[in-house]
Design brief:
There is one protein chain. This protein is α/β, with parallel strands linked by helices. The chain has 13 helices and 18 strands. Strands 1, 2, 8, 9, 10, 11, 17 and 18 form an eight-stranded mixed sheet that branches. A seven-stranded mixed sheet has the order 6-5-13-14-15-12-16, with helices on both faces. Helix 1 runs parallel beside helix 3 and helix 12 packs antiparallel against helix 13. The structure holds flavin-adenine dinucleotide.
Length: 421
């Protein structure tokens, strides 16, 4: 019998497994064949993720080969630039996340953790005082507490245990490799977040610039994988706004793309007797920028800390005891979530207004130092429960002041509502 079985070895599951293997007997199960390869991922890793990552990883330049110095919130009209150099330390780091996952797993194993890769959990059976999971080969394992860290790929399992599932969309990305000299010439920033209603009504087109490689794609639609792919190729080939960034970078139309679900909006409860849900599976992804790594790391950290004392006290891991996990996730993350919810409400959905608003917002970034400072501070804040929503409201007021009079007349109710989030 394991103390904890974790299903899913994304950022949530691996960081949870690594942390709990210091004090518990933990099994980590993953459907993908990680022994062969952990898929390449290049991510934005804001400084506010730091409290949830041990220094041994945070200070490892193979995991984080680039500092996150400048972002580009791009609209059709403007490159809205924010450079950390104006304020001090970097906005965070750029993560070669497959290396982070590999190193978390290596340490997990060193600490006595057990992995089973290339195995899909197909069934979960509740017993009176333990939980049994069954894999696609018919083998079963038992645990005192089960952790669902299945992202957007484990909804049937989640439902079978009576959990809600979050709102889920589709996203696509590809990795493109290029010499550092070309990347340095083409990209003055490490992160581009670009809204264009014709690409997606519900998410950004993005560049995450790593070392020797970029990840690019878009989030938030509900097309099929072939449609997503065809559109991504069209954008990379023809979309004028991004051609300067692709200049001199070699890629061909057969390039491998990864498409899949991306969820947001937290479900109402993350725990039941002997089961908790971490990260994206619980809808713990910020609504506007889709920061899922922050939420995966934070929920794993919070759960690993609480479960240590429960395990020591021979707990039965009742829903009442585990409710502390839900409460702490809400305390740590949900004040910050209000910013994403308000931005989502303002900038996504209706096409005409979202274009006007995003153009104005990106221009504000270039012209108003206080706006830049507030965004900078949100990136580096090491305790997001103290995120200052008054600053968000102030930025909202500046945005309202900056839009054309005719837009003010139609959009003021929308602003009023967004301010109340
Ligand atoms: C294109 C794209 C770019 C992104 N960029 C960023 C970024 O730059 N910064 C950021 O903060 N966030 C980013 N996000 C969001 C973030 O990557 C995710 O929200 C986060 O990685 C989710 O982590 P997770 O561990 O909760 O889930 P996942 O990473 O989805 O891991 C779940 C794992 O569970 C496994 N699994 C599922 N069901 C089973 C089963 N039945 N049996 C066994 N295994 C199973 C899956 O194979 C998977 O490996 C991005 C998302 C996308 C789609």
């Amino acid at each position: 019998m394991y103390d904890f079985i974790v299903i899913g070895a994304g950022i949530s599951g691996t960081s949870f497994a690594y942390k709990t293997s210091k004090y518990a007997k933990t099994l980590l199960i993953e459907a993908q064949d990680y022994d062969r390869e952990i898929p390449v991922r290049t991510n934005i890793f804001a400084e506010h993720n730091k409290p949830f990552v041990d220094d041994v990883f945070w200070n490892d330049d193979t995991i984080f080969p680039r500092p996150f110095i400048q972002l580009n919130y791009k609209s059709e009209k403007y490159n809205g630039l924010l450079s950390s150099k104006e304020f001090g330390a970097p906005l965070g780091k750029i993560s070669h996340t497959e290396i982070l996952l590999q190193k978390l797993i290596d340490k997990f194993k060193d600490q006595g953790g057990i992995t089973r890769f290339n195995e899909n959990i197909t069934k979960i059976v509740r017993h009176t005082d333990y939980i049994e999971v069954v894999n696609n080969k018919g083998e079963s394992f038992t645990t005192k507490l089960l952790v669902l860290a299945t992202g957007s790929r484990g909804f049937p399992l989640q439902k079978s245990l009576g959990f809600e599932t979050p709102e889920s969309y589709m996203g696509i990305y590809t990795n493109i490799y290029a010499d550092e000299s070309i990347l340095n010439e083409n990209f003055s920033f490490q992160y581009m977040f670009h809204l264009n209603h014709n690409i997606s009504q519900n998410g950004p087109f993005f560049f995450n610039v790593g070392k020797g490689r970029i990840a690019t794609g878009y989030l938030g639609n509900r097309e099929s994988p072939p449609e997503l792919r065809e559109k991504l190729i069209r954008i990379l080939k023809n979309y004028q706004k991004i051609q300067p960034f692709m200049k001199g970078i070699k890629w061909d139309e057969n390039l491998p793309c990864v498409s899949g679900g991306i969820s947001k909006h937290p479900i109402s409860s993350f725990s039941k007797d002997r089961v908790i849900v971490l990260g994206e599976a619980a809808g713990l992804v910020t609504a506007f920028f889709y920061e899922g790594i922050l939420c995966g790391l934070a929920s794993a950290h919070i759960a690993a800390t609480l479960l240590n004392s429960l395990l020591e006290g021979n707990s039965n891991f009742t829903k009442t005891e585990l409710k502390k996990y839900d409460d702490e996730v809400a305390r740590v993350l949900f004040t910050y979530f209000r910013n994403g919810n308000a931005c989502e409400y303002l900038f996504y959905n209706e096409s005409a207004s979202s274009k006007t608003l995003w153009n104005a917002y990106t221009n504000l970034l270039n012209t108003n130092k206080t706006v830049r400072q507030y965004i900078y501070e949100a990136h580096i804040n090491q305790d997001l429960s103290t995120h200052n929503t008054d600053y968000d409201r102030w930025v909202g007021e500046q945005l309202f002041a900056a839009i054309p009079v005719i837009s003010k007349m139609t959009l003021w109710p929308k602003f009023l509502k967004a301010m109340s989030f």
